[in-house]
Amino acid sequence: MRRMGRPGLFGTMARTAVIAGTATAVSGNVRNRQQAGAQSAAQQQEMAAAQQQAAIDAAAQQAVAQQAAAAQAAPAAPAAAPADDLLTQLARLGQMNQAGLISDAEFTAAKAKLLGI
Fold this sequence. Notes:
This protein has helices at 9-73, 76-80, 86-99, 104-115. By secondary structure, it is an all-alpha fold. Helix 3 packs antiparallel against helix 4. The longest helix has 65 residues, at 9-73.
């Protein structure tokens, strides 16, 4: 004779096994989703870092190109330098000395060279 209402020992064990299996499957899915989310976030961070590095590299290349263009333009300026008179060149040397671009000794040597001393 079977009791009505409450399950027996085997019924309780079967129900417990089903619940435990379901909980295991759910926790496995949650763990997999969290890992996938973490991987996605890491990939996005790597992509952002790569984009920033590419932008930095592009800016550096542009700066190098500008410096190269300035260096190419700079030799054109000395061609006009002989046309400058002696006073202009001495004034330019004085300004460079005051700005700290050349030392007093360098200023004196350049001035002597200009004056032919």
